Amino acid sequence: MQKGDLLYEGKAKSAYLTDNPNELVLTFRDDASAFDGVKKAKLAGKGAINNRFNTFIMEKLEQAGIETHLIKPLNETESLVKRLDMIKVECVVRNVSAGSLSKRLGIDEGLPLNPPVFEFFLKDDALHDPMINDAHILTFGWATSEEIAVMKHKTFAVNAVLNPLFAEAGMWLVDYKLEFGRYDGRIVLGDEFTPDGCRIWDAKTKEKLDKDRFRRDLGDVIESYHIAAQRLGLE
Ligand code: TMP
Ligand code: ASP
Description:
Oligomer: single chain
Bound molecules: thymidine-5'-phosphate, aspartic acid
Distance between the termini: 28 Å
Radius of gyration: 17 Å
Helix content: 25-40%
């Protein structure tokens, strides 16, 4: 496999072409971003822990029969992935109230949500990722109704795998964001699953072990990512 030109640079990851048109090299950088790029920093070691974390989670999902873009990790900060035609919506599941849901609806943080809440957001930094619904996705052609149904189904299937995994490790998977793409006629999980794109709380103390530590200036960001990783048994 030959790593080629830079295809795109996101806020925390970059994607490079390879000599195979169906595969990309995904590089997890040390860049941290919050509030749609408004707050930025370099956090040493973030690329490496996120690449490991993502590999661990995506392998768990594959074992449970949920197809992901991950082919294999290549080195500390890079993974080989399938090249998806990304759908520009973000799928969020919330098991516990927090973040924008608490703000929008005036709900205290930390309340278990039964059943879990599903939300779509438009992936658009300039618009600050507005919340959207199925009608917007259909009308503006971002995905078909079949694709919407598959994304919802797969996002909940991920919950069925990861919720117990985190619970058994003494943590709450409060919420998370997934992105999907099209590959060979199928809807496949892309992007990443790391503490950058989810909320993880210690089940007892409710201590935050995710990017809210960066968003809210709580300190020990990367240390907390490592604590979550260790508890899941991946270090
Ligand atoms: P929110 O409470 O800010 O809406 O976020 C819900 C979850 O989704 C949280 O774990 C963070 C994640 N998320 C992202 O990683 N990127 C995004 O652009 C959005 C909207 C949410
Ligand atoms: N992921 C977005 C950003 O990097 C939003 C956030 O995490 O606050 O800016």
